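Worked example

This section walks through a single chain of length 203. The input is the sequence exactly as stored; nothing has been trimmed or padded.
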Amino acid sequence: METTPQKSNRHGLLDDAQGIAYGGFMASVGVVLLTHLGFVTGQTAGLAILISYATGWSFGLVFFVVNLPFYWLGYRRLGLRFVLKSLAAVTLLSVLVTVLPGLLQFGAVHPLVGALLFGCITGSALLALFRHGASLGGIGIVALYLQDATGFRAGWTQLIFDACLFAVALALRDWQTVAWSALGALVLNLVIAINHRRDRYIA
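Given that input, the structure is written out below as tokens.
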């Protein structure tokens, strides 16, 4: 669930605060829907979800802990401002996904609708975070670091990581659930790919 955040000095403190709050809240709704359906996803969130499914541990706690090692790389690659904003977004998501299930329950949701809704909701959340210089995780940071160090394309690193996650998911979920999950991840990435354009976004 990561990509390179857009650096911009045009947003003020309140702008950034509302953007991160919106992104964190909408992403948490997406995760609640995702786990309600038993789906998985990619990137750091996907890793945390698989660990949560396999152990029964709280996703919020696992997600927060899994991200800790990546902040140093984020600081070196993208600066302190990015790390602090990302820490705020990750912390908000970790808290909200723990609280929201007591306030928001889903009934019957068709997997197709669930996959599309997850992709759209979470895509909009990540767009808000990226446009305010924040992120929700570390695999994208590692990918950028490896690209700088070795020349290996960041997109390939993320693709390989996600492929491994979905392969592991087949051991924990049936193939139909994994297939619907892949559709949700595809929609999410299409939302970002189409809308997260520096040449189109003006703030």
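What to look for: The CA atoms of residues 195 and 201 lie 8 Å apart.
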